[in-house]
Structures are given as structure tokens and as C-alpha cells.
Design brief:
heterodimer; A: 383 residues; alpha+beta; Butyryl-Coa Dehydrogenase, subunit A, domain 1; Butyryl-CoA Dehydrogenase, subunit A, domain 2; Butyryl-CoA Dehydrogenase, subunit A, domain 3; 3 domains; 4-stranded mixed beta sheet; 10 strands; 15% strand; globular; B: 256 residues; alpha/beta; 2 domains; 9-stranded mixed beta sheet; two-stranded antiparallel ribbon
């Protein structure tokens, strides 16, 4: 990736925003189990940060995806993975398909206020029995006049309790599982839609995650994104951006974890010397930093190809897989060097240890990433 | 109203600073330059005045230095909302405030600014003189340590911060040069559209030459040596007390 002055300036704005508007409140939000998404999004919308690649007609800036990767990476300085993930849902998970395939009507009604920060968006794909296996979802939308009637249940929905609308993947026909799905925008105040209790999680505690129930929810067919039956394909394409965002947004968290650990290990004395002076520790930290730089290079490569209009499903899946595994390695190794302090809840390394664990699960598990990579390598067992 | 905001690129606090081989300046090649803190407040104040007046006023960021160090500073100002920029290109290491103020004044004179805002002082050298000297050289009314401004009836009211919690309101006729204290407002972040639009704004480059007869020079820069030494005072009690008093009064000067 070639960084221009504008990339650097965007990085600076996002870094300073994260350091001033998110980081100082992180502890309070973690304890509260939620963060003020509307307040933060409005501030970000005012800075044009929620529509970096989006259509300028609806308030976006229409830049290429390299700016989104810079945005995601710089967000790491906010040091609160919950808020970062929630912002990513807004910018790179729930809205890319709406931006690319949505009609003027739904772009005006939902995309524009998402870019300005007036609306909080959520993506509703997973279900209690369909997480990784997206094709097997059961939530359905039946036509009734000019409307759809939606029934079903979605699970693990980030931003659920604060969302103004959901971008929902549903079955709209009895065709094959890859051709029977549509993405439909459903306002959260639609009768029949209800949001369950927040799910108590081991990490990402400031992020509101909840199930969403659809009981004869009636929405106009005009709220469908793109062609009927194209939902699965659109969602798969949308996953590329989701996975690139998720990867880029963890780079600084890992870097900070290594830096904080170097600092701690320098100060911490045992047997008459800094524990950093033990080769097992400084070598290990060097290994982790090397892995991190390799992941950064992979992320940038995937981004470059994406900007060139190429399909990066495999590279984005590789980056996502590697980031999930590496953040677990980095936080686990670093936490070990913090000793007893690492096992307490109030230090950045242990929070990253808990938050980072989701990276191998959310946005597609490691196993699904491996399956996608194998498919592209043509190494899956032949039927 | 035309408002000039003087901004300076200074070494970032996060940079690892080392003295160069001449021992009269720092090695700039390893330093990241950022906007001087109090200049950010001066720019914000200017932008707020412009927005409040809403009469087509103009805010111009002005800086001096080398292209490498200052380009980000100017772009930052333009991205935040300044209308145009003036860059006085100068590679000289002369840090004499009077020479600098003269160079600014020569190049700003024809612009006929109503207001010149500067930060209270630069965080690297801390002279706090440029704004005041420019005011004098351009025949402007001048105030320092501004913590609040109010434009009314063709004049600017400035609340000045004095010592011991005292404040002073002064009213200055235009044109005026005012140095702004840090913390008086909340400097905005550059928006993405502001960042992308900055490159399309006018940025005037002027080659500037500082005086070859500066009134102030750096002779030698050095890192203070830290030494640990224990002085043992021996003798009878009266002698020890007398000796200790002498050290406190005359050597350490912590009592009088």
C-alpha cells in the first residue's frame, strides 16, 4: 500500500479521536456492559469517518478501500475492542451491500443517516443453529402484497440493543441455499421485531450483543437490497470487507500489547535483573513482532488487490485466520510475562486476552477461514 | 475580516531527540514534526470567530521553515478549515525571534490582516516573542496570553490571563496581534472531507531569508549531566547546623 499525505492525515485524525473520545471512557463502558454508540457515531459522522468508501451522493467520501484499512488500523489506538468492533459493524459489515446494491430509496432512508452517524446499524446473519454455515439459515421472508413478512431468530448480533435498523439475511424462496437468500433492511421499531437480553460474554464486554426475534415482521419489499435471491452472494462479498476490517483493527492492539509488555518486563526485576533480559522473553517478543509485521504486510496486500477490483476472498480469509491466531498468541505470551498482574482484570494485556479471543470466532471462525482457503487451493475432499 | 494564524512545526514529544554534529541544533532527520500546541488553539479561535461572524471572513495559516518539516502543519490547518496558507520557505537554523518576526512582517505586510493570532509560545524554544514583535513591526495593537476573545463594534476584546488567578480585559482596535493561551477552546479534528479538500486550497510559497545578523544565537546545545553526590557534614551540632544553613541558603538557594 502506498500511503499519501491524506492517508497519514486520516490516520492522525482517527488516532487522536480514539485516544480522546474512546480510550478514556473504556473502563467505564466495560463495567457498564455497553457504550454510547449513538453519541460516538454522531461525532464520527461529523468527521466523515463513517462513509469513507461510500457513495458521496449519500454523504460518503467515495475513497478507495485503502483509506478504510488505514481507518481500521488507526482505530486500534482507541484501545477498546468493543467500540472498535461496533464501529466496524457500522462501516464495513452492515452497510457495504446497502451502499453497492441498495436502491436510492433505502440509501436515502438508511445509508445516509448511517454515514452521518444519526443511525446505528447492525448486521443480522447468524442464527442459533446457523453460525458458520450461513447457507443453512432458517429465517424466512414471505411475500404478502408489496411487503415481506419475516419470521425467525438471529443470534450474536453486535449493536443489537442500540441499532436503528438491521441488515437481515433471510430466505425469500425455496431455491437452492445459495440462490434463495436476500438481504433486507428492517427498522428496529417495526412491530413484531424484538431484541432479547444482552448476552454476558467473557470479552468485548462494552459491546451490546443480543438475539433478535422476528415475529410476523412486515416490511416493504422496497427495503430489499439488490435482487431477490442475490443475498448470499452479496453477503459473501460483504464478508471480504468485514474480514479486512477485523484484521486491520487488531494490529495496533497487538502492537500495544507487545510494547506494554516490553515496558513492564524492563521495569520488573527478578534475580537481580530485568526480566526482559531473559533471552526466552526478548526472543519471544521479537518473534511476535515479526509475525505482526508479516500479518500487516498480508493485510496491505489484500487491500491493494481489493482496491484493484480483484476478489480477495482467499487473502482476506488468510488475514482473518492469521489475525485470530496471532492475537491469541500475542496476548497469551504477553500475559504470561506479566505474571500475577496478567491474571488480574484491570490491565490492558488481560483485556486484550479476553477481547482478542473473539477474533477466531466472530466474522467467520478459524475453521471456516481454513475451509475457504482450502476451497481456493482446491484441496477439499472431492465428492 | 482577515485573520492570520501563525503556526509552527515543532518536534513531537514522542520523538527521540538528539543533538546534531554541530552541537547547535537537534538532528531533524530523526524527528517527527507536529503542530505547536498553543498554535492549535489559536487556529481554533480564529475558525470560531470566522464561523460566528459568518460574513465571508478569511482564515490564513502562515508558517515558516523547511518544506519537509512544515508541510503537514500547513495541511493540518487547511484540513481543519483555514481558507488558504502562506509558507515562508527557509532552511536557515537562525532562531533569533526578532529576525523571524521581521521575515514574517515583511511577507505579511501587504496582506493587511485585521488580526494576527499566534500561540502563546512554541513548545520547543519557548520564546513567546514572535506575535508581540510582529505586532510592533506592523504597527498593530498587541495583547498576550489571550484566553477569551469577543469581536464587537470593530474592536476585539481580549481576556488576558495574569498571575495568581487574576485576569484582565483589554479592548484592542484592529489591526491587532494576539497571542493565545493553550486550553481556551477545544481544537477540532480535521474531518476526512477537510483532509481531502486541503490539497485543493491555495498554498502560497515564498522564499524567505532570515537576517544574517541575528541578535541571538545558539552557541552550544548539550544534555545536562546528571550526577549523584553525597556530601557528608561532620562536626558538632552547631557546626553541622551552620554548615547546613549555608548550603541551603547559598548553594541550593532554597531558603533566604
Amino acid at each position: 500500500m502506498k500511503f499519501t499525505d491524506e492517508h497519514h492525515a486520516l490516520y492522525k485524525t482517527v488516532k487522536e479521536f480514539g485516544e480522546n473520545e474512546i480510550k478514556p471512557f473504556s473502563e467505564e463502558w466495560e463495567k457498564a456492559g455497553i457504550y454510547p454508540a449513538h453519541e460516538i457515531f454522531k461525532k464520527m459522522g461529523d468527521l466523515d469517518l463513517l462513509g469513507i468508501t461510500k457513495d458521496p451522493k449519500y454523504g460518503g467520501t467515495g475513497l478507495d478501500y485503502s483509506f478504510s484499512v488505514v481507518f481500521a488500523e488507526a482505530l486500534g489506538h482507541a484501545c477498546n475492542a468493543s467500540a472498535i468492533m461496533s464501529i466496524g459493524v457500522q462501516t464495513d459489515m452492515a452497510t457495504p451491500a446497502l451502499d453497492k446494491y441498495g436502491s436510492d430509496l433505502i440509501k436515502k432512508e438508511f445509508l445516509a443517516p448511517s454515514i452521518s452517524g444519526d443511525y446505528v446499524a447492525a448486521l443480522a446473519v447468524s442464527e442459533p443453529n446457523s453460525g458458520s454455515d450461513v447457507a443453512s439459515i432458517k429465517t424466512s421472508a414471505k411475500k404478502d402484497g408489496d411487503d415481506y413478512i419475516i419470521n425467525g431468530q438471529k443470534m450474536w448480533i453486535t449493536n443489537a440493543t442500540q441499532a436503528d435498523y438491521f441488515c437481515v439475511l433471510v430466505n425469500t424462496s425455496n431455491d437452492s441455499v445459495h440462490h434463495n437468500k436476500s438481504l433486507i433492511v428492517v427498522p428496529s421499531n417495526t412491530p413484531g421485531l424484538s431484541v432479547g437480553d444482552k448476552i454476558d460474554k467473557i470479552g468485548m464486554r462494552a459491546s451490546d450483543t443480543a438475539p433478535v426475534y422476528f415475529d410476523n415482521v412486515r416490511v416493504p419489499q422496497a427495503y430489499r437490497i439488490g435482487e431477490e435471491g442475490a443475498g448470499f452472494t452479496m453477503q459473501m462479498k460483504q464478508f471480504q470487507e468485514e474480514r479486512l476490517f477485523l484484521t486491520a483493527s487488531t494490529l495496533i492492539a497487538m502492537e500495544n500489547c507487545i510494547k506494554d509488555t516490553i515496558e513492564y518486563c524492563t521495569e520488573r526485576k527478578a534475580f537481580g535483573k530485568s526480566i526482559l533480559d531473559n533471552q526466552v522473553i526478548h526472543f519471544r517478543l521479537a518473534e511476535l513482532q515479526t509475525e505482526l509485521e508479516a500479518l500487516r504486510a498480508l493485510t496491505y496486500k489484500a487491500c491493494d488487490r481489493f482496491v484493484d477490483g480483484k476478489d480477495v476472498t482467499m487473502l482476506a480469509s488468510m488475514a482473518k485466520l492469521k489475525s485470530g491466531r496471532l492475537i491469541r498468541e500475542v496476548t497469551d505470551s504477553c500475559l504470561q510475562y506479566w505474571g500475577g498482574m496478567g491474571f488480574t482484570t484491570e490491565n490492558p494485556v488481560s483485556q486484550q486476552y479476553r477481547d482478542g479471543r473473539l477474533q477466531s470466532i466472530g466474522g467467520g471462525t478459524d475453521e471456516i477461514m481454513l475451509q475457504i482457503i482450502c476451497k481456493h487451493m482446491d484441496t477439499l475432499p472431492k465428492k | 475580516m482577515k485573520i492570520a494564524v501563525l503556526t509552527k512545526a515543532i518536534p513531537s514529544y514522542e520523538s527521540s531527540i538528539r543533538i546534531d554534529s554541530s552541537s547547535t541544533w537537534i538532528d531533524e532527520s530523526v524527528v517527527n514534526f507536529v503542530v505547536n500546541e498553543s498554535d492549535s488553539y489559536a487556529l481554533e479561535e480564529a475558525l470560531q470567530i470566522k464561523e460566528k461572524l459568518d460574513n465571508g471572513s478569511e482564515v490564513v495559516v502562515v508558517t515558516m521553515g523547511s518544506q519537509d518539516n512544515t508541510s503537514k502543519v500547513l495541511k493540518d490547518g487547511l484540513a481543519k478549515g483555514a481558507d488558504r496558507a502562506i509558507f515562508i520557505q527557509n532552511e536557515d537554523s537562525n532562531t533569533d525571534p526578532l529576525s523571524i518576526a521581521k521575515l514574517f512582517s515583511q511577507n505579511l505586510k501587504d496582506e493587511n490582516f485585521d488580526l494576527v493570532f499566534s500561540g502563546l509560545q512554541s513548545d520547543d524554544l519557548g520564546s513567546g516573542q514572535t506575535g508581540v514583535l510582529i505586532g510592533e513591526l506592523l504597527g498593530m495593537s498587541t495583547a498576550t496570553l489571550g484566553i477569551e476573545t469577543d469581536i464587537q463594534d470593530g474592536k476585539i476584546k481580549i481576556k488576558r490571563e495574569l498571575e495568581s488567578g487574576w485576569f484582565q480585559w483589554v479592548t484592542l482596535p484592529f489591526p491587532a496581534s494576539v497571542s493565545i493561551q493553550s486550553g481556551i477552546n477545544e481544537p477540532r479534528y480535521p474531518s476526512l472531507k477537510g483532509i481531502m479538500g486541503a490539497k485543493r486550497k491555495e498554498s502560497k510559497v515564498i522564499d524567505g531569508q532570515l537576517s544574517d545578523d541575528p541578535k541571538q544565537n545558539f552557541i552550544n546545545l548539550f544534555v545536562p549531566k546528571t550526577e549523584k553526590a553525597t556530601e557528608k557534614i561532620e562536626g558538632d551540632v552547631d557546626g553541622i547546623v551552620a554548615k547546613l544553613m549555608d548550603i541551603l541558603k547559598n548553594k541550593l538557594r532554597v531558603i533566604s
